[in-house]
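> call design_seq(struct)
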């Protein structure tokens, strides 16, 4: 039996190369080895954007197209919408008794996000909803509904997987062994820096290269990337490790990297030349992804069908878990 892998992403915008190298490139490879479920976590996105449903809806389709374009294959894996699986919402209600408010507030990811909200909106009490504080419970439902064994995530998600494990242990100890305790799987490359050298690449930081950026946008972004500030003239030697252009060459430029490094250190390459070479390599790398994106944009009916069929398949699996959960909790009144 193949192991079950489940992961989710919030539809909050297009995928950038930080997501790609940090996470989703791995998912594409997992498809051949594991039984994979990829959840578009639109209900979770609504915890932050309940007042902007148009935005969430638009991002659901953008994300679906991004996932298909990088090679998530509906013939191999299940791509589905969280909101299309009512079983997840029902499990969330049952699990919510197994988690204290204190424990939710102590969850490091939730804590950081509440601090960010506080900085943005001031009064915490006014901006933090019940749904938001409880999203780790609903994420535990996401994972367990599909009997997820391995959860490939970024480091920031570890506390959420840990919280899920606690819920599973508590459920199993009270109601009898029903659920599987998942493992988080971290990638080797968990975080990609931004164009400005920031440790994190992010939409809100304005330092990201998106998978759907056009060549001219990529050109402008790379031209503005941070290089070694000590290098002023074209033939000054520089330290490639202080340069974001070199950093991205390592991701996109294959065998050319060694030459880039050597020439930079020896003062044998100008930054403009170096950036142009990187732009070309990034564009070449992203071209097949962009082509697939174009195809799906022209065939939105296909995207719609993939999501619908994936959600139907996902629901079948989740309903088995829900049945087991209700039986364990002795609320299976009408099952034979
Ligand atoms: N919380 C995750 C994020 O913000 C998204 C997510 C939702 C998820 N459900 C999940 C991740 C289940 C792993 C497993 O990116």
């Amino acid at each position: 039996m193949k192991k079950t892998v489940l992961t989710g992403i919030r539809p909050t915008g297009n995928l950038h190369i930080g997501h790609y190298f940090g996470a989703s490139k791995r998912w594409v490879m997992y498809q051949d080895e594991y039984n994979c479920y990829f959840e578009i976590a639109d209900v979770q996105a609504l915890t932050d954007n309940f007042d902007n449903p148009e935005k969430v809806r638009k991002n659901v389709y953008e994300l679906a197209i991004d996932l298909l374009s990088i090679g998530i294959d509906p013939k191999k894996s299940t791509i589905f919408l969280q909101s299309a699986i009512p079983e997840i919402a029902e499990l969330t209600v049952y699990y919510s008794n197994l988690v204290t408010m204190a424990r939710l507030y102590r969850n490091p990811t939730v804590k950081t996000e509440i601090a960010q909200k506080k900085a943005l909106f001031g009064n915490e009490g006014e901006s933090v909803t019940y749904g938001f504080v409880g999203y780790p419970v609903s994420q535990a439902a996401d994972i367990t509904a599909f009997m997820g064994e391995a959860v490939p995530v970024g480091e920031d998600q570890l506390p959420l997987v840990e919280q899920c494990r606690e819920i599973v242990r508590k459920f199993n100890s009270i109601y009898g062994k029903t659920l599987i305790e998942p493992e988080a799987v971290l990638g080797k490359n968990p975080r990609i820096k931004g164009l400005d050298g920031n440790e994190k690449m992010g939409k809100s930081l304005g330092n990201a290269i998106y998978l759907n950026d056009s060549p001219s946008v990529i050109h402008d972004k790379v031209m503005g990337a941070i290089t070694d500030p000590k290098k002023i003239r074209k033939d000054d030697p520089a330290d490639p490790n202080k340069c974001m252009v070199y950093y991205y060459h390592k991701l996109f430029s294959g065998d050319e990297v060694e030459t880039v490094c050597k020439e930079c250190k020896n003062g044998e390459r100008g930054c403009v030349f170096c950036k142009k070479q990187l732009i070309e390599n990034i564009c070449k790398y992203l071209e097949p992804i962009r082509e697939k994106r174009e195809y799906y944009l022209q065939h939105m009916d296909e995207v719609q069908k993939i999501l619908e069929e994936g959600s139907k398949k996902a629901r079948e699996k989740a309903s088995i878990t829900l049945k087991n959960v209700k039986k364990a909790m002795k609320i299976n009144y009408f099952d034979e």
